[in-house]
Specification:
Elements lengths: L8 E2 L9 E8 L3 H17 L3 E8 L8 H15 L4 E5 L3 E3 L13 E2 L3 E2 L15 E5 H6 L13 H11 L13 E4 L12
Parallel strand pairs: 2-3, 2-4, 7-9
Antiparallel strand pairs: 1-3, 4-8, 5-9, 6-8
The protein binds uridine-5'-diphosphate and manganese (II) ion (MN).
């Protein structure tokens, strides 16, 4: 559908964007979601005139899923590929609804998914960092990324919250409806262990 997109790089044709962004999607076995995400977010990025390269960080079926590790690996591979000002970690089932929810980095971590559909579009909880969050690349390196120790489901996002706090940073969030995100449905809400 997008023959003009080369290697996942979306950029405006008539101007230069302020930031070069890497979008890292931790991924395994959610193909329908990936299609839905691409079909909705690529047009959004174009409307925002973003310069973004999409990296799908896919884990093989040999171990339990480790979302933090997939994000760290995606980040490291992205930095080998190009020089980015900004990294956005985006779960494959989170799609921003508001064009004002801009894929960009602020001096502080920018949590773009404060009000997910599945939580009734309410702020999930104060320290929530999951769904979609952006960091300036130097800031993400400064907090030493995500923990690699959380397998199966959960934990790595709250641990990230602690790393942010420890570094003296504050999570910024778009106000109110701007951080509304559609959350794509999936049967299991927990990542099941392989064995
Ligand atoms: N994920 C994946 N495959 C899996 C488990 C998780 O691709 O088997 C990725 C995917 O990006 C997903 C994110 O990790 O959106 C969060 O996992 P999940 O949706 O299971 O957790 P939830 O936030 O719904 O509790
Ligand atoms: Mn989910």
């Amino acid at each position: 559908m997008y023959p003009d997109i080369d290697n996942g790089h979306i950029y405006p044709k008539n101007c230069r964007a302020k930031q070069k962004i890497a979008i890292v999607i931790p991924y395994r076995n959610r193909e329908t979601h990936l299609h839905q995400w691409l079909l909705n977010v690529i047009p959004l990025l174009r409307r925002q005139q973003a310069d973004a390269t999409i990296f799908v960080s896919e884990q093989a079926e040999v171990e339990n899923f480790n979302r933090g590790m997939m994000k760290n690996i995606g980040f490291i591979e992205a930095t080998k590929y190009d020089q980015f000002d900004c990294v956005v970690f985006n779960d494959v089932d989170y799609v921003p609804e508001d064009d004002h929810n801009i894929y960009q980095c602020l001096p502080q971590p920018n949590h773009m998914a404060g009000r997910p559909e599945k939580k009734g579009y309410k702020l999930y909880y104060g320290g929530f960092t999951g769904g979609i969050i952006s960091f300036r690349t130097d800031v993400f390196k400064g907090i030493n990324g995500y923990s690699n120790k959380f397998f199966v489901w959960g934990g790595e996002d709250d641990n990230l919250g602690k790393r942010i706090k420890k570094a003296g940073l504050i999570i910024s969030r778009p106000l109110y409806n701007v951080s509304h995100c559609t959350t794509l449905r999936h049967k299991v809400d927990k990542r099941l262990p392989l064995r």
